Amino acid sequence: MVRGEIPWDLRRRGPKDAQRHEARVREAIRKNLRHLIVEETIISSRGDRKVRVPVRYLDQYRFRYGRQVTEGAGHGPGEPGDIIARRGGQGSGGFAPGDAPGEDVYEAEVEVDDLVELMLEDLNLPRLAPAEAGGIDAEEIRFDDVRRRGLMNNLDKRRTLLQNVKRHAAKGEARIGAFDDSDLRFRVWNVRERPRARAAVYMLMDRSASMTTEKRYIAKSFYFWLTRFLRCKYREVDLVFISHDVEAQVVSEQEFFTVSSSGGTRCSSAYWLALRHIREYHPAAKWSNYAFHFSDGENLAADNERCGELVRQLLDVCRMVGYGEIRYGGWGSFYGSGGKEPRRPQSGLHAALARLEHPNLLLVCIDSRDEIYSALRAFLAQEQ
Amino acid sequence: MISPRIREVLKIGRDLGLDFYDLVFEVIPWDVMNEIAAYGLPIRAHHWSYGRVYQRQRVHGRMGLSKIYEIVLNNDPAYAFLLDTNTEVENLLIVAHVAAHADFFKNNACFEGTNRNMVNEAAAHAVRIEQYKEEYGIERVERLMDAAFALERHVDPYKGLYREEYPKRTVEVREAVVDEYADLTVEGRPFSQVKQVKGGKIPAHPERDLLWFLARYAPLDEWERDVLEIVREEAYYFFPQFNSKILNEGWASYWHAEIISQYPGMTPREMIDFSVLHGNVVQPGHPLQVNPYYLGYKILVDVKKRWDRMHARGESRLDGTEKLFEIRTSEDDFSFLRNYLTPGLVKELGLFAYGPACSCPPHTPRPCPRCGDVAIRSRDVDAVVEAILKPRYNYGAPKVVVTDTAGGVLRLEHDEPGTVLDREYAEKTLAYIHELWKAPVQLITANERGERMEYWCDEKGARVTLRAGTGARRG
């Protein structure tokens, strides 16, 4: 018998291969974004920086039996024919845990920001004005220099020590200590003027009664990812949330994402409010403004013309206006046709906006949850 | 620090007749133990699938669901790994247990052809695969390994690791007797010449060793063949362990009990600790599973008792212990259970075979009240043995064989009545095979109703189509 002396600790392979597995899972997540983006647990985790996404361990494909029935050998009391386990795991001990690989799920912890990055890394706010043109300069303090004199609070200990060692070394002594003033080094700051791009994004959402839970869900998902994306990508961006039925209000983010629906629809109210808000707080000379509106298009017919007019005015002060029409459920959401019906024609509102034919106006139709991702891309992947 | 008592325990093992390779003990922390368990060998080529197992075990281990006390490798010398948190009593039990495993590896017939230098061999494999990754890129090598691992259980352990190619096509001319009495007549010619064509068909017989077949006959580069062979060689190495789990664990459990009970150096306190541990190792376990340690141990104890009795009565040349050594040399799980699990023992252990409580097809639209329930099917010894063995046939994988390559189409057949292949998995696996074969691949199997079903994996990309035929099943 020999006692082995191999340093197994230094030969670790598991962590590296576990990382490789993790990387493949992430790759799988990336391919699956279309479905993840509507995952309720993510949308509802507002405020958390991390979400836990249930992920299956990656499958290793091989020939295996399908439709496995529960069978095998066991031990204990009972006669042939006696039931020993029930569906759902009651009875004596429940079902045997299968060891079939690929069946179980673990929770991958994903930063929401990572997810945003995965999805939207190549996207941008289109036509964002170059920083200088925005005209707003911000002062920034940066510690980026070292001097011999400074405030004791800002003493750079590492450099001071080094200096001390060097000084002694020059005299042929290997020691630290006997500090004198010539050893001291201080971190000092410079004030830099940093131009910043300033953008304001207006998010308009229809909360009228015709917006069913599912439609609202689509709109909210869209805005959820949009806010995440904007906060991730731009340091300074003003978000304005406006929800409307026949009247519009500026609401807090919290309220915006939790509203329930009621009332009729007059979209012009929201456009008018956004317009007024822009003029007051985000003048186009200094801000790059963006407005997005989600509705199901079931607007008061008489209001459509006015909407067209207001949107044209909005386009004068915005770099882009996006309108998303949610047509989930087809014509008669009443009849639950599930979108299998022939496509519903565009609404009057959509038609009114389409007539504007403005290059900075983007119209998108969404038929199902899966299209949220493409809508996001459509709005944000525009050429500058 | 390894205690001198361990040497004493090993000496008792040898004195009792165990014949094992030298043992090298490594004391390692919990996480390294997990890792070696996940890989099966200390150093194997990197692959994400090991990382997956490792990660899963870590999660389970942290939640306290499982603890691996020891690992022993079939190698000369045999490497054994002990957890650095083991108590002395745990270590004494494990050392005795491990010595019996090493004896089994060395002497059981199934292990005869295994590579006793696999620890180093696998490390060399890892180096080669790392080189391929440098040369051909990680994506390509990994993809190839994915394909190889998909087929790793499709080897033919009885044909041997190193195989000859199928015979080349030859024509033999033989003289055959036409008519025994033809030479009695003038014009009669007793013999006629018969031409017989031999060989040439690929495969010459239904081929189970898919990895060998593809490594040999698929249009692959040399390094690609090597990767397939590496995976195949390691699958070969692990096969006997898969096929003798119950006997091997029973054997090791029998001997750790025997050795420690004969070891005089245990204090009474330690003896109690030991008994508790031993009880845990050979406990019956979950009622819907049969713990292999428990089953193997109980059968061996029963055999020992029976043969001692028969020997005493002069009915057997061998006494109980000699019989056990005979079993250890010549049986695997299949023969072990069939030969030595008696109706009396089935009754004593309360074993049964179970299955669905009703005969409705799975996922039936109209479930009966008993659908989804599980009931005892039988306590008959044959039924119990089959229920235990069923998942162990054919390396635990569906039996898929190559039957033909006419016209360049690789034709696979799966013929196990009463079983169905998982469709998604079959399609993905066929896509792997197609990548290696680089020509159409066909798989013939049956659906739930026993009707013939064909998978087809085309050369224009890895699209898989399904054709449900109506013809009766072959064979």
Question: Can you describe what's shown?
Answer:
The complex is a heterodimer of chains A (384) and B (475). Chain A contains 12 helices and 13 strands. With 384 residues, chain A is an alpha/beta fold. Chain A has 3 domains: 16-57 and 103-121, no CATH class; 137-195, no CATH class; 197-380, Rossmann fold, CATH 3.40.50. In chain A, the strands form 3 sheets. Chain A has a 6-stranded mixed beta sheet with strand order 10-9-8-11-12-13, sandwiched between helices. A two-stranded antiparallel ribbon of chain A has the order 2-5. In chain A, strands 6-7 form a two-stranded antiparallel sheet. In chain A, α4 crosses α7, α7 (213-233) packs across α12 (372-380) and α9 (267-281) runs parallel beside α10 (304-317). The radius of gyration of chain A is 31 Å and the shape is flat. Chain A starts with a strand and ends with a helix. In chain A, 29% of the residues are buried. Mean pLDDT of chain A is 76; it is low at 88-103, 131-136 and 330-342. Chain B is of the alpha+beta class and 475 residues long. Among the domains of chain B are: 118-165 and 203-242, no CATH class; 167-200, no CATH class; 398-468, no CATH class. Chain B is built from 16 helices and 12 strands. Chain B has a 5-stranded mixed beta sheet. Chain B has a 3-stranded mixed beta sheet with strand order 1-3-2. In chain B, a hairpin with a 5-residue loop joins β8 and β9. Chain B is globular, with a radius of gyration of 27 Å. Chain B starts with a helix and ends in a 7-residue tail after the last strand. Chains A and B meet through β1, α1, β3 and β4 of A and α1, β1, α2, α3 and α6 of B.
Features:
heterodimer; A: 384 residues; alpha/beta; Rossmann fold; six-stranded mixed β-sheet; two-stranded antiparallel ribbon; 13 strands; 33% helix; B: 475 residues; alpha+beta; five-stranded mixed β-sheet; three-stranded mixed β-sheet; 16 helices; disordered C terminus
